[in-house]
Amino acid sequence: MSRTGGCGTRVSGEHLISEAVLKVIADKEIEVSGMPWLKGQKKTLGFGALTANCLCSRHNSLLSPIDIAGARFFEAIQKCGTNDCGRGLLFLISGHDVERWILRSLTIFGVSGNFAIDGTVIDRDFVDRLHIIELLESVANWKRPLGLYFTRSVGQQFMRADNLQIAPLLKAGSEELVGIALDIQGLHFALVAADHDLAGTRLTHALYRPAGFVFRIGAAINRVFLSWEDGLRHESVIMEWTQ
Predict the structure, then answer these.
(1) Which end of the chain is more exposed for a tag (fewer CB within 10 A), N or C?
(2) Parallel, antiparallel, or unpaired for β 90-94 and 220-227?
C-alpha cells in the first residue's frame, strides 16, 4: 500500500486470516492445507505461523476495524448456527465492512504468494489492477458486479462445521485474479473485486449482497442482518436445521 504515501517505516507481520477470526475457530492453533509451501500436506500450526509481511505497521493498524467486523461476522454465524434454545440471537453488521474484510484477506493471500494452482503461485500483481486501495478506502467505489455473493442454491443441503476455506476466483481461461471464494462454516460466498462479466459463471444466479441470514434451529430463530447503503433491494437467506 506504499503508493498511498502514508506508509510507516516498519513492516508488520499481519495474519493471513485475521487473528480475531482465528480465535473464533480455535484457541491457539488450526489445521492448514492448500498453501503452496505445504506441498500437498496438512499441518497443525499456531496462529503466529500464519503471518506475512505485506503491510506497514500503520496500515495494519488502520485496517484493524475491518478485522473486527470480520470476526463479528464469523462469530455471529457460529453462534446463530449452534444456538437452539431461548428467544433467539440477533446480530447487525455492516455488509460493506464484511466485503472489505474479505478483500483484505484476498489481498494478503495474493500478495504473499499463498494463492496457487497445483502448487504454482498465481497472479501476485493485482493490487493496482483491482484498485484494492480505493476499494478498502471507500464503500462508494464498489459498484455491481463488485461485491459479496451468496452462492448456495435454494433447497441445497449442507453440513455446518467450524472451518474456513478460501480459494481464488479467476477470470475464465486465465490465471488473472478477479475475486475470492469462501466456505464459512458451511455457507458459501464469493467476493467479486473486478468489473468482470459474470454471464455463464456460477455467480449468474447467486444472491448479490444478502440482507441477512435466518437460522431456524430447534425452538430458536437466530438472525444475522447485514446493512447496505447502496439503494438496492436485498433478500435474506433462510436456513432450517434438521436432525
Answers:
(1) C
(2) parallel
Q: Which residues contact 233 (CB under 8 A, 6 or more apart)?
A: none
pLDDT digits (tens, 9 = 90+) for 87-114: 899 999 999 999 999 998 898 888 888 8
Q: One-letter amino acid identity for 89?
A: L
Please give the torsion angle defined by the CA atoms of residues 141, 145, 147 and 153, in that order, rounded to the nearest 10 degrees: 170
CA dist., res. 23 & res. 68, Å (int) = 12
Q: Grid coordinates in use for 88?
A: 433467539
Neighbours of 76 (CB within 10 A): 24
- Rounded to the nearest 10 degrees, the angle between the axes of helix 64-80 and helix 95-111 is 110
Q: Structure pTM? A: 0.87
Cα-based distances in Å from 12 to 56, 72, 106: 5, 23, 18
**Which amino acid does the sequence have at 32?**
V
SS3 130: coil
Which amino acid would we find at residue 143? Answer: K
142-181 pLDDT, tens digit per residue, is: 999 999 999 998 888 888 888 888 889 998 888 899 999 9
